[in-house]
Structure formats: C-alpha cells, structure tokens
Amino acid sequence: MINPGKKLQREAKRQVGKIKKLIKPKTKKAGLAPGTLVYTGEKSEQPIKISVIDYLGENFEEKEVKSVEETFSLQKTDSKSWINIDGIHHIETIEKIGDRFDIHPLVLEDILHTTQRPKLEDYEKHIFIVLRMFIYNEELHEIKNEQVSLILGKHYLLTFQEDIGDVFDSVRERLRKGGPKIRNGGVDYLAYALMDAIVDSYFHILEKVGEDIEEIEDRLVVNPEKDDLKKVHRLRRDLILLRKSVWPLREVLSQMQRNEAGLINKSTEIYLRDVYDHTIQVIDTIESYRDMVVGMLDVYLSSLSNKMNEVMKVLTIIATVFIPLTFFAGVYGMNFENFPELHWKWMYPWGFWIFTLIAIGLMLWLFKRKKWM
Amino acid sequence: MINPGKKLQREAKRQVGKIKKLIKPKTKKAGLAPGTLVYTGEKSEQPIKISVIDYLGENFEEKEVKSVEETFSLQKTDSKSWINIDGIHHIETIEKIGDRFDIHPLVLEDILHTTQRPKLEDYEKHIFIVLRMFIYNEELHEIKNEQVSLILGKHYLLTFQEDIGDVFDSVRERLRKGGPKIRNGGVDYLAYALMDAIVDSYFHILEKVGEDIEEIEDRLVVNPEKDDLKKVHRLRRDLILLRKSVWPLREVLSQMQRNEAGLINKSTEIYLRDVYDHTIQVIDTIESYRDMVVGMLDVYLSSLSNKMNEVMKVLTIIATVFIPLTFFAGVYGMNFENFPELHWKWMYPWGFWIFTLIAIGLMLWLFKRKKWM
Amino acid sequence: MINPGKKLQREAKRQVGKIKKLIKPKTKKAGLAPGTLVYTGEKSEQPIKISVIDYLGENFEEKEVKSVEETFSLQKTDSKSWINIDGIHHIETIEKIGDRFDIHPLVLEDILHTTQRPKLEDYEKHIFIVLRMFIYNEELHEIKNEQVSLILGKHYLLTFQEDIGDVFDSVRERLRKGGPKIRNGGVDYLAYALMDAIVDSYFHILEKVGEDIEEIEDRLVVNPEKDDLKKVHRLRRDLILLRKSVWPLREVLSQMQRNEAGLINKSTEIYLRDVYDHTIQVIDTIESYRDMVVGMLDVYLSSLSNKMNEVMKVLTIIATVFIPLTFFAGVYGMNFENFPELHWKWMYPWGFWIFTLIAIGLMLWLFKRKKWM
Amino acid sequence: MINPGKKLQREAKRQVGKIKKLIKPKTKKAGLAPGTLVYTGEKSEQPIKISVIDYLGENFEEKEVKSVEETFSLQKTDSKSWINIDGIHHIETIEKIGDRFDIHPLVLEDILHTTQRPKLEDYEKHIFIVLRMFIYNEELHEIKNEQVSLILGKHYLLTFQEDIGDVFDSVRERLRKGGPKIRNGGVDYLAYALMDAIVDSYFHILEKVGEDIEEIEDRLVVNPEKDDLKKVHRLRRDLILLRKSVWPLREVLSQMQRNEAGLINKSTEIYLRDVYDHTIQVIDTIESYRDMVVGMLDVYLSSLSNKMNEVMKVLTIIATVFIPLTFFAGVYGMNFENFPELHWKWMYPWGFWIFTLIAIGLMLWLFKRKKWM
Amino acid sequence: MINPGKKLQREAKRQVGKIKKLIKPKTKKAGLAPGTLVYTGEKSEQPIKISVIDYLGENFEEKEVKSVEETFSLQKTDSKSWINIDGIHHIETIEKIGDRFDIHPLVLEDILHTTQRPKLEDYEKHIFIVLRMFIYNEELHEIKNEQVSLILGKHYLLTFQEDIGDVFDSVRERLRKGGPKIRNGGVDYLAYALMDAIVDSYFHILEKVGEDIEEIEDRLVVNPEKDDLKKVHRLRRDLILLRKSVWPLREVLSQMQRNEAGLINKSTEIYLRDVYDHTIQVIDTIESYRDMVVGMLDVYLSSLSNKMNEVMKVLTIIATVFIPLTFFAGVYGMNFENFPELHWKWMYPWGFWIFTLIAIGLMLWLFKRKKWM
Q1: Contacts of A294 in chain B (CB under 8 A)
Q2: Which CATH fold would you assign to the domain A311-369?
Q3: Is C281 in contact with D25 (CB distance < 8 Å)?
Q4: Most CB contacts within 10 A, which of A349, B363, C22, C262?
Q5: What are the mean pLDDT values of chain E's consecutive 10-residue runs (373 residues total)?
Q6: Mutate to test the interface with D, among C335, C344, C369 (most CBs of D within 10 A)
Q7: Model confidence at A192: pLDDT above 90
Q8: What angle do CA C260, C266, C271 make, to 5 degrees?
Q9: D196–E307 CB contact, under 8 Å
C-alpha cells in the first residue's frame, strides 16, 4: 500500500505546485507606468509560435507563420481569421500586434501579466477576454494552469497562450473537417467554441478531484492515516483555487450574452447560454466538493478521537486489572515477622489464585457492561 | 442490535451510490462539437418505450407505439398529446424527434447528458425544462435518481426519461378518469401536474431522511457508536446533493410564472405558484436538516470527549488509589537488615491494613468531592 | 440537584416533541390531484367548533353555531364578521365554506395541510394568510404549535385553527369591551390584531428560551454536565425551527403593507408596520440566541478538555511521584547475595525515607512550577 | 495576578448584566391593545426631570420645568426648542406630551418599551427615531445601556431617556457657548449632534472591548487559564449584542439622508453622511473583533491540547522509564530456589545498576529523538 | 532552526504592531463639535514637508516650499499642480489650506483622524478620497500603515500623508521624465496613478503574507510546533485587518468610474477600471488566504491529536507489556510458606523467562495487528 500512496502524494504535490501560481500576485510590475509591457511569467527560451487559420465558407487555409507581420494582410480580407500566439515572452511581437490591431496598452499589459482572473472588457473595436485553462497531462500526471487571452474583433480572433499545447485541438479538427456551424458561424462562434473547450476541460479536472475525494472518503471511514489529512487539506486548497478561477467566468459569460458591443451574433447567444449553464454546473460541483471536504475534516478528527478512545480503553483495562493485583502480590511479599497468612497451608495455591481469577473476572464483566470491550 | 444496524447501513450505502451520479460531471463529451449527440448514461439493452396519451375534452386515447414516426401525425391535430419516451440511449430516435419537433441540437444534447441541473430554456416554439426525479423503491430500499426532460409546445408535451418507471402514475390515472381540470386544461397544466408529482416525491425522500436523522439523534445522545459518525457524514452528503438538485428548481418555477413565451395559460399560473411554494418548503426543510446534521457532529465529538473523560477517570482513580499503596507494600518487602517495623508484632495484621483502608477511604472521598465518581 | 434537572429535561422533551411537527413534510397527499382535500394532521374525534363574532359600530353579537350554513347569511350584511373554525378535520365543512366564500381549491388544500410555512396569497376577493401560532401551556409546561389560516375578505374574516385554544382571547376581550379602534376599524384591523397577538406570543416563547440559555450558560461555566450538552443541542434545534416559522412572516407583513389587493385600509398600514417591527425584533433575537448557543458548544467542549486536563494532571502527579519510588523499593527487595546496602545500619530508617521525602518534595516543587497544582 | 484578574472579571460581569437587557423581549405588553401605554423598564421612584433649551440666533434660554404643561407654550414660537425628558415611568406625563404634540399612540408605546432596536418612522408632522445609548461610568466600571427616543418636529426636538445622565453634555455645552453652526442650524442639526454624540460613545465602548481583546489575546498565547475562556465567551456575547444595537442604525441614518419628510435641511445632510460613515466604521470594527474572538477560541482549544500533550508526555516518559525497570527489580526479588544470578558476586552492585543506567539513557535518547523532551 | 524562527516571529510582531492601528477607533475627538480639528495620530516633532509639482505640457517644475501660502498662487494658473503635504500634525497649516481651497470642515477633520476606512466624498468643487497605504521597509522588515487623503480639484491635487516616505516615487519619476500620458493627462490621471501605486503595494504585502503561509503550511504538515499556532493566528488577524482596508476601496473606485462630479475625464475611466480589476484581485487573494488559514487551524488541531495519539500508544504499549509481567514477578516474590513453584528446579531460568518472552511477543503481535506500531 505504500507505493501507490507515495505515488499519489507525489502526484498531488506536483498538481499543487502548478495550481499555486494562480495566487501569486503580480509584483514585478510595481512602480511602472500603466501600459508598460513586462512579462511576469517564467522566462522561456522557446521561440514564439504563431499559427493562423483563415476560413470563409468553402475556403480554408491553415499555416504557421514566422513573423507576426505576415498575418497583417488578413485583417483587410472578409475571411475569418484565427491567429493563435503560443508564447508571450517576446514583448516586441506583442507590441507589434497591439499596434496593428489597435489594442489598448492596458490590455497588452494584462495579456502579459499571466495571473489575471477571468474577465471581459469591451472596447469599441474588439472584446478582450481573459480565461484560465487547465490541461491535465495524462503521462506526467500533471496539471498545467495557463492564462488564455482572447481578442475578438469583427473578422479576426486573436488568442494568446503562455505555452505550446492547449485544449483546442478538437476545435481545430472541426474547422478542418468543415463542420457547417463552425465554418459558417462568425469568429464569435469560434470564440464560443474555444470557451466551451476550456469549460469542458474543467469537468475533466473535477472528475479527477472527485475520484480523489471518493478514495480518501472511503479510507477515512475505515482507517484514517496521517497522510490522509494532508490530502484532505490539499484538496481543500485546490478547490479554493479552482473556485477562484471559475467563479468570475460566470460574469464573463453573462456579459457576453448581454452583447453590448454588437460583436456577438444573435445565433451565438444560445450557445453562450449553454456554456454559461456548464459553468454554473462546474461552480455547483466545486461548492458541493468543498462542503464534502469540510465534512471530511470533521470525520477525520472524530476518527482520531475514536482511535484515542480505543487506545485509552486498552490501557485502562490492563491497568485496572493488574495494578490492584500487583498490590496484593506486593502485600504478600512483605517481610513482616508476624504474618499469619503466609503460614496458612492452602493460601497460596488456592486462596491467592482463586481471589485473583475472581477479581479479573469481575473487572472484565464490569468493562463489558460499560461497553468498553 | 447488529442486524438492523447492518441493514440500515447497507441500505444507506445503496442510496448514496445512486445519488452520487448527480455530481459526476459529464466528461465523455469533451472535445466534440456542441450539439453532437452522445448518450452519457449507462448503456442499456432495453428497447425504447414510447407511450402516447392524446386527449381533448371527452376524447381520450392512450397507446404505446413502436416507432416514433407514428406520433408525428398528432402534431397536426388540435388535441393535446403527451408523448413520453422511456430510455434515451437510442440516439436516432431522439434525433428524429428533434428534427420533427424542431428542437435545437443543444437541447437534444442536454436531454442526453443526464447530469444536468434543473433549468428552463425558452425557445420560441416550445419551452425546454430539465428536472430531477427521485424514486424510492420500497422493496429494494433504493433511491433512483433520474433526469426528466420536458419539451412543452402549444399542443404537445414531450417527456424524456432515462428508465422505465416514474412518479407520474397518479397523473396518468387522473387523465384516464377524466378529471375536469386536467382534461380541460392545456398541456401547460399537464406539465404542471408532472412537476407537482416530482416535487411531491421530494417530500417522500425528505421524510425518509428525517426518520434517519431522528433515529441517529436519539442514539447519539444516549450512546454514540462509531457507525453513527459514518451515518451522520452520509446524511450530510446526501443533503448537499439533494440541495443541489432542488435549489435551481425555484428559479425554473419562477421563470415559468413570469411566462414570457406565452405558452403558459393565466389559469395555470396559480398552480405554478403552489408548486413554487412547495419547492420553497422542500428547500427550507433541507436547510434545517443540514443545520441539524452539522449540530449532530458537534454532539458526537462532545460525546466522544465525554466518554474519554469517563475512561480516564476510572484509570486515574484506580492508579491513584493503588500505586501509592503498592509503593508501601514494596517498602515492607525490602530486605534491609535493620528494619525495626518488620519486627513489631501488630504491624502487619492491624497497622498495615488499617493504614491501607484509611488511605483508600480518603482517596474515594476526595474523588467524590471532585465529582469524579 | 437531580430532581429539577430531570424535570427540566422532561419538559424540554415535550417541547421538542411538539415543535418537531414543523418539519414533517406533507406526504399523505402525494399523488392526488391538486385541490383534493385531505387532512394531514392527527385525526381528532373532537367536533368542529364554529364561533362567530359580528359587529358594526355599537352592534355586537357573539355566538357559537352548530353548522356552517348558519354563518352564510352574515355574508350579505354590511356588518363585519369574524368566523373562527376550531378543528379542520371535518372536510365537508371546509368544502362548504370554500364553496360559499368562493375560495380556490388550492387554498383549501393549504388550510388542511398543516405544515405550511407562513405565506400570503392575494386572490381578487380575499387575501389568504398562513401563520404559525405557538401556545405555551403554563400548567403542562408544553408548547403547542398550530397552523392558523386567515381568509380576509371585504366584510368577513375567516380563521381556521387545528385545535380549540388560541392566543386571541385578548382580542376577543377588546371586541367585547368595545375598544373604539377595533370596533370602528375594518376586518383588516381585526386581522392585524390577531397577527399582533401571534407575534406577541413569540416573545413569550423567546423569553422561555432566553431563560433556558441563561441557566445553562451559568452552569456551563461552573461545572458542565453531560445533560447540558443535550440541552444545548435541543436549544439549537428549537431555534432552527422557530426561525423557520418566523422568518417568512417578515415577507408576509411587507406584502400586506404593499396592499395591492386594496383590502387593507390606509389607517391599518401603520399598525402593520408596527407588527413588522416586532417580527424583525423576534428574528433578531432568534439570530442572537443562535449565535450564543453555537458559542456555548465551544465553551462546553473547552470545559470538557479542561476537566480532562485536570484528571490527567492528577494521574500524572501520582504516577510520577510513586512509580520511581516503587522502583527503588523494588530494588531493595531484590534477593542478591552480595547486596552491601542491605547491611548498612542506618540505611533503612534514615537513608531510605529521607531520600523518599526529598524525591517527593522535589517532584511537587516541579509540578508547582509548571502550574499543574 | 489574582487581584486584577478578579477585578476584571467582576467588572465584566457587571457589564454583561447591563447589556443583557437588550435581548429581553417585551412581554409585559402581550395581550393589550396596541397603543396601550405600559412602561416595561424597571420601576423607578425618581421623579421625572424635564429640561428645556430654547434658542434662536442670539437668544438662548435653558431651564428645568416642573410640569410638562410649561413647555407647551414653546410650540407656538419660532424659536427652536429641545425638550429632554429623563425618566419615562410617569405615564401621564408621556400621554400629555403625546396629546399635545400629536404623537401616534404606537410611537408612545415604543417610547415606553425600552427594548426597541434602532429605527426611524416618518410621520407627517415629525420623525420618530429610536437609538440605543451606551454610557461607560469610569468610577463604577459600569456600562449603562439606555433607549433614547427622539421626536423631531419642525421647531422642536423631544428626547426621552430612561434615566438621568447621558452623553449629550458636550452638545449642551456647545449650545450654551453659542457655537455658530449649532445655534444657526435647525433642530435637525441638533438631532444630528445628539446622534453624533451617541455614535462617538460607541467608539469609547469599542476601545474598552479592544483593550480586553488585546489583554486576553496576549495571555492566551503564553499561558491560558480557565477564566480566559469565560472572558472570551463574554466578549463574544457582548459583541453579538453590540452588533444588534448598532447594525440597524445604518438604515436609520440612510433613511434620514433620503429625507423624505422634508424635515431635514439640505445643509445637515452632509453631517448625516459623516455620522453614517462613523457608524459603518463602528460596524466594521465590531465585525473584525468578532472574527478575532472566534479565532481566539480556536487558539484556546489548541493551547489546551498542547498543555495536555505536555502532561501526557511527562507521564509517558516517567512510566516508560520506570515500569520496565520495576519489572526487573521485581524479577530479582523473586524467591525461586534455583536462581543462579542471585549468587553472582558483582551482579548487584555493577550488573544491575549499569543495566539500569544504560536503559534509562537509551530511553531518554529515544525521547529526545522523538522531540518529546 | 531557532534563530530564523525567532527572527520571523520578531518580524511578525513588529508587523502586527503596525497594522493594529487600523482598528483603534478614534476616541480623542468624542464630545467635540463636528469639524473641530484635532490630530489623533502620534504627536510628531518633525516639521511639515510641503512639496509641489507643477506641470503643463512641456513645463515642469518641482519644488519644496516652506509655508503653505507659497502654493496658493498656483491655484489661479491653468497648469496642473500636485501639492503633497507630509505630516498633518500642524493643524494651522491644514486649516489654512482648508480655507483657501474651500474644503469642508468635516473633510479636514477626516484628514486628521487617521483611522478612516477608504471612502470617496463628492463635493461640488472637488472630490475627497481616503486611502490606506502600506509601505514595506525592506531594511527594518517593517510594515508602515498610513492614511493618505486626496483632494482632487479641477487643476490641483492635494495629498496629505502622515509621515515622510511613500510609494509614489515611481509616479514622481514618470512626471519628471515627462511620460506623455501622465504629462498630458489631467490631475484625475495623476490621482489614478497614485491609487494604482497604492494598490500595487498591496500586491507586495500579499506576496509576503503568501510566503509566510507557504512556509508555515509546510511545517504544519511535517512537525507542528507551538509557535506555529501563534503565527497562524497572527496571519488570520492580519488578513482580517487587510481586508478591512481594501474592501471599501472597491466601492471608492466604482464611485469614481460613475464620475458624477464631472472631475474625471472619459479617458481616465479605462484606467480606473484597471485599478478596480486589481483591487478585486487583491480582495480575491485575501479571501483565498483567509480560507487557507482557517484550514491550517484544522490541520494544526489534527496534528496535535495525532501526536497525542502517538504518545498515548507508546505509554499503552509499555504499560500493557510490563504491568502484567510485574504482577507475575510480584507473585513469585511472595513469601508464602507453601509455595511449590519456588522449589521447581527449572522454573526460574526457563519457565519464567520463556513465559515472559512469549507474553511480550504475543502483545507486540497484537499491537502490530491493531496498527499501533
């Protein structure tokens, strides 16, 4: 039982380590003018990867470009373009895009500070959306937590991610295969599809958390170990952090549905309502899990008390039975000169042992009656 | 006392096992296009059962049909039709219905993902309502938890259930007997009647939970056992999940009362207000139960402490009485050459025992005064 | 101290037994058509008692009638009539009244299901109000909890109670004596007077609860007993249930003040504001009491820990003093042949006892310094 | 350390005794007609003291009158009059005032029932305000808790207090000295000044509570005593009650600012906003204190557990060291005939003691490693 | 491990000492007329330092002035002036400024009472804003908590600070360097920049708190010490107080965005939204930290119970093994004349020791099975 436990623990540690980032506040920036671009994530050596998907009805083109300038021509065409930037540590690239797409410096700043809570900001020409994406890597048993920023314009959708690798492959596949809804829908529908993929990935994480809860819960009832407390505590913390990531998403989605900027088509609203529903479901589940985890702590504490009670009972039974007997044995070990009992013939073999057995029997009967045994 | 306890526990386990489904998030879907129909419940071999009740004033017809196409003709008539589908694992059937009744793909998707929270969605031609139904099987001591989806149109009401068996028999009976209100009312009244039946079934479940609470509460005060903790914990969890199922229903019902789609008749509103009231009552009761269950955990912990105190007192009394005496017995068992007391004539029979009895008496008096005995 | 404690406990038990009814959900009804009249309270053999008070300025008549038909003539007159029905198990009578006064079947149903939460429903011809009444019987030390239903029309006020006996005697007295406000006011003022009497009775109950809290609180601080925990737990539960009864009353009263049906006179509104204030005061007090009771549980737990600490200290002091000494006594009881100390002349009378006394003194001094004694 | 502790405790007791009144519900009234005047406070032999301050620009008159009739003439003048009544047990006086100033009977009733929560009621001719005043008596270390009722008319301000002695002396002084704002302001400004004085007195009480919290907090961390628990519990209760007194004041002040009756001048509004701010600050502080006090209970419980742990460790160390040794001593005290060790020459002086010392050393080393010592 | 721990503790103490000021209510003022200027902070000997930054497009002037009168001329020019006053204990200076800039006496009072919660008050000619600034002094490991008051007029911005030293150096630097946004923006943009600097400093404090939480959390899981409890308690208290400082800031910022006074330019609103977002992030983080700290207390308590359990097990194992054996040794130390076993030849060397070893072995096996070892 040690091995899988250890593994699980190691795994939990890694998971926590990744989620922790969520609460690290952005401090590198303090003291700079607003709109000054500084990347607050971990420095990466990786080159930026820019991939473009351009589509309009039957036309579909997917390519990877070297420099961001190559994408600028797309802005003028009527076709819908999804420009995805993996890696935001290359500040000049971000600045060039900001310049070209007329993005407010504060928005660029938010894209680079990768500890934002989900939010939506409505600019005239585009909507800026921040989301948090969780990727569960099955091989490494690791959860990666990334900020995804979306700039949704009339004909283009820009997405910024911290690293290569995301939960959008299914969306790309649908685009390639030419799913009618996604091809004919606007970029707002594409944005919806990405958000839907992200919310779906939350369900995946929750399923993992749910499995952990079930596993620990079963153990707590039978035989709680010290490690279980740590795990419960970690679950609690993870749920606090998950909640912090998901809760504001609700507001983001209802803002989108209100659709004040006019960038969301009527037909997409119904789909947004659907993601909204899923988000509520995620929040609901998180809250239920939190309630359960709090309850588990009570169960753990009670189990500890129960165990202590059991230990104490054993001690008390042994002590209560043998301490008085030891006294009697001690009495007959005294060396008084005038000690009549010592000379009675049947005192030892019968008198002493019978008395002892009766005493023991009586005690045990009493303990039984008190339900200690 | 072991047998009924075991039975209760087994029973509780089964119950939990069924309710648990509520929180399992839908993961099979992740990555598919929205509106792709995938059934996420347990695969079933059962054929789909489609039953139709068609009525208008005096006319009443009830039949079971083989294929869904047979029901399509009903749509054109003025009579009111209730088409109930038991079993939703047969995706083509669902798709055909969706096609014919012009149901949005997202709605069909929600019908198939059987872990929805209660909700109401207003489409132009119909209202889509999701409810959760709890069926208590008296024979198996089992609670089944199912998703019931309603499509309420102008002249028709579609209901989708996961399995055969529901809480609607009383409604069917009233239809058959020709109750004036239900016959002359629209399908909106019929929908109300079904919702009322579901809310009534919650009261039934709550009654069972209430009995459990009362039983455990009485035991906790007298002599709490380790199993009781588990039961309290389970009750707590069940209430968390029940609350999750019932809470959103309030919103559903008040949305229906606001009646924006015009599919709800004025005369039905008063009945909806009644179900709304019942729902509030259910929620109220759940909250009170939750408060009580939390209080029970405190009582359990205190009872444990109390028991420990009792055990410790016994140990302390025994040890405090006999340990010093054992020391004195030990003293007179020492082998010093020059040991005057050993040679005093009445030292043993009187001196020693009188001293011992006085010491014991004194101790007991002290314990009495401290209220330890 | 046993006798009064026992009495109090018995009393508390009875009290709880009565209040419990509040949370029993209505299950007898499940499956019936809405508006089907079934009485869910305890079956009673008592006949229904119908009493009528009819008044208009100087005219005042009070009588008890045999059958409900006798009251129907009053409806046509301009005089104000208060028809009070004690006992609602006679369904035909209720149906006749319903018929005559044009009461919606759902209202009749609610009158009979005596576990309603307070509510107000506005029908065109009358307002339907449900209240919960608590009667403290001084002789039996018992609290009765009843549902009171009011139908407030233009010229009549119907009240339905489960049993004979209520808190309205003071109102009747004022009517008889011809208090100017009550005689000249409409039936809405009468309804107010009844509601005021009910809210006043809550203060009475709260006073009893407050006395209990004070009594237990004092005891908890000095010497908590096992029974006190049960009492605290019961207080907590009672407060949960009281809150459930009173909380919705606030909404009822503010609905009445909004006076949408036009059945409430302007001059009565100021009085309703007064009852509303009292209700807020009741709720406030309940919340404060709940906070206090929760705090008491913490105090109880801490007191238990404190007591355990004390017990453990005694054990530890005794054991720590005598166990080492017993070892030394044991040492000199060993039978080694070569045992020089045994032959030293003053070893026993002086050496041994002086060492013992010094050891004890040292230990006690240490315990003193650690503040264990 | 005993003396100051005792004193503090006595003091705390007195304090609690006074605050308790706040939650005693009004029961003397039950059953009487609304507006029947009954004084529910403690019966007092003191005569009523009526003092009048009349001012208009340069004119200022302050006098004490014998009978209430003397004040009636003031009503007709344009000058601003503050009529303060200390002592409300003399019902006729109150009735006469009510008559003359046209005060609604329900208001008079509220003035006499001295357990009202703060509230504001808007009558056409005047505003009725209830406040709670806390007076800390430095000499007696006592907190007095009184209800202050204000009737604010166009030219007059009536104040009713339960006892002689209040926190308004600074306001009187300003009036006498002819502070320009207070002399030229209307009676609404005067009412504001009184309310400001009351809110300021809350800060004073909170400062005392804060000192208590700091004192106990420091002690809890170092060496918690049993009395500290009681004090923490009392602080908690006091804060519950303080909150109950202050919370509704917020609403009162914002109602005044909305100024619907037209009795509040525009220029006073800014001052009301200031008191409002202070009230929020008071509530904030109360909430923070409550959070802290709850945290202190956790600390207390943990400290108890810590202490118990320490005691248990001492017991365990002693027992673990000496019980096995006692066994060995017992072994060599056995009387077997064939007992070779007893005859070995150096067994006792060296063998036995060296073994003993090694055993003790080993044990202590183990405990050290386990960090028990 | 002692040294760094001690240091951390000392550091924490200092931190707490500084933050505590936040909750000290203002009492010096009680009883004075509103608007009477009394400084409630610590009396300082320092002279007041007045620094002026005057700028308009290309023009930039920064100077320090001796008397406040020197700044009055700036009011007439079109250039934007930031007048910063460090030290508010010199009341005449404050009064002169108040006079000249037409500041309401209540505002001046609030500036001097340095325990205000953040707020915004809208006067016709200017907006009054109160903020709380936290400065972390890296050298002294100290947090200073100061009130910063802003008066934002059309062309001027007055800032009042308690002491020399603030978090505004970066803003000054940007002004000097001539950052285009800050130079061309109005004083409202300047006010925004200062608020942004303050909110950024909160992130810095939170980072320190986060480090503390992480450090303690790790230790709690491994080997909790008594001091850790104190630290957890202090963290909890600090978070309560931080929350009290930051929470109202949200309201302040949304009031500014609503921009009713017309003193905030449209172009600044977007920046205010940005600070608003950061404030929400700060509050979010504080809440998550609070949740975590509460969880840590549970972990601490459980760890204590665990440790106690371990101690008890050792005691029980030792006692259970040796107490019965001691009894047997005692038995064979009895001096009965007729004691056959004593004369059996192999009884001692084999019989006794084999029995003893078997008994010990059996016990250990039992403990193993119970998982106590």
Answers
A1: none
A2: Methane Monooxygenase Hydroxylase; Chain G, domain 1 (1.20.58)
A3: yes
A4: C22
A5: 41 40 49 70 75 88 86 78 90 89 90 88 90 79 82 92 88 87 89 93 87 82 76 84 89 87 86 92 90 85 85 90 92 89 86 91 91 79
A6: C335
A7: yes
A8: 105
A9: no
CATH topology of domain C308-369: Methane Monooxygenase Hydroxylase; Chain G, domain 1 (1.20.58)
Closest to E240 in 3D by CA, of D210, D292, D243 = D292
Asked if CATH classification 3.30.9.10 holds for the domain at A2-23+38-301, the reply, yes or no, is no
Judging contacts by C-beta atoms under 8 Å, the chain B residues touching residue C119 are: 277
Residues in chain E within 8 Å Cβ distance of A348: 334, 336, 338-339
Residues A303-337 pLDDT 10s: 888 888 888 899 999 999 999 999 999 999 999 88
* B35 φψ region: left (φ > 0), alpha (ψ -120 to 50), beta (else): left
CA atoms within 13 A on the CB side of D340: 5
Pick from E24, E318, E355 the residue to mutate for testing the D interface (most D CBs within 10 Å): E318
Residues 331-360 of C with CB under 8 A from B: 332-335, 339, 341-349, 352
Residues of chain E found within 8 Å of residue A35, distances taken between Cβ atoms? 181
Closest by CA position to E21, among listed E311, E245, E271, E297: E245
Q: A–E: how many Cβ contacts below 8 A?
A: 163
**D306/E223 touch (CB, cutoff 8 Å), yes or no:** no
Dist. CA E108–CA E124, nearest whole Å = 16
Residue A257, min C-alpha distance to chain B (Å): 14
Does any CB of chain C come closer than 8 Å to the CB of residue D373? Answer: no
B274:C30 CB<8 A = no
Question: Cα distance from C163 to chain B (closest Cα, Å)?
Answer: 23
Facing residue for B30 by CB, picked from A200, A285, A306: A200
Class of domain D2-301: alpha beta
Q: In the numeric block, which tokens belong to residue A225?
A: 């170990």
Residue E296 exposed, middle or buried by CB count within 10 Å (0-12, 13-18, 19+): buried
**Domain boundaries defined on chain B:** 2-301, 309-369
Testing the interface with A: which of B103, B307, B331, B339 to mutate, by most A Cβ within 10 A?
B307
Interface test with E, best of D166, D298, D368 (most E CBs within 10 A): D298
Q: How much is the pTM?
A: 0.81
* Contacting E residues, span 27-56, partner chain D, CB-CB under 8 Å: 27, 29-35
Fold of the domain spanning C2-20+34-301 = Beta Polymerase; domain 2 (3.30.460)
Structure tokens at A254: 């209802």
Our measurement of the distance from residue B255's CA atom to the centroid of its chain's CA atoms, rounded to an integer in Å, reads 25
Domain B309-369 sits in which CATH superfamily? Answer: Magnesium transport protein CorA, transmembrane region (1.20.58.340)
Instruction: State whether A333 and E338 contact (CB < 8 Å).
Output: no
**E228-272: per-residue pLDDT in tens?**
888 888 888 888 888 888 999 999 999 998 877 788 888 898 899
Per-residue pLDDT of chain C (373 residues; tens, 9 = 90+): 334 444 444 444 433 333 444 445 455 455 567 777 777 666 666 788 999 999 987 888 898 988 888 887 776 778 899 999 998 888 888 899 999 899 998 899 889 888 888 999 988 889 999 999 988 777 766 667 889 999 999 889 999 998 888 889 989 998 998 878 888 888 999 999 999 999 988 988 888 888 888 888 878 877 777 778 888 888 888 888 888 889 999 999 999 988 777 888 888 988 999 999 999 999 999 998 988 888 888 888 888 888 888 888 999 999 999 999 999 999 999 998 888 888 888 888 888 899 999 999 999 999 998 888 7
Selecting from 3.30.1340.30, 3.30.460.20, 3.40.50.10260, 3.40.50.360, what CATH number does the domain E2-23+35-301 have?
Answer: 3.30.460.20
Distance, in Å, from the CA atom of A257 to the CA atom of A271, rounded to the nearest integer, reads: 9
Question: Is the CB of C297 inside 8 Å of chain B's CB atoms?
Answer: yes
Structure tokens at B82: 């209730």
The superfamily CATH assigns to domain E312-369 is Magnesium transport protein CorA, transmembrane region (1.20.58.340)
Q: How many whole angstroms separate alpha carbon C121 and alpha carbon C117?
A: 12
Could you read off the pLDDT of C144-165 as tens digits, one per residue? 788 999 999 988 999 999 888 8
- The complex scores an ipTM of 0.75
The CB density around residue A211, as the number of other CB atoms within 10 Å, is: 10
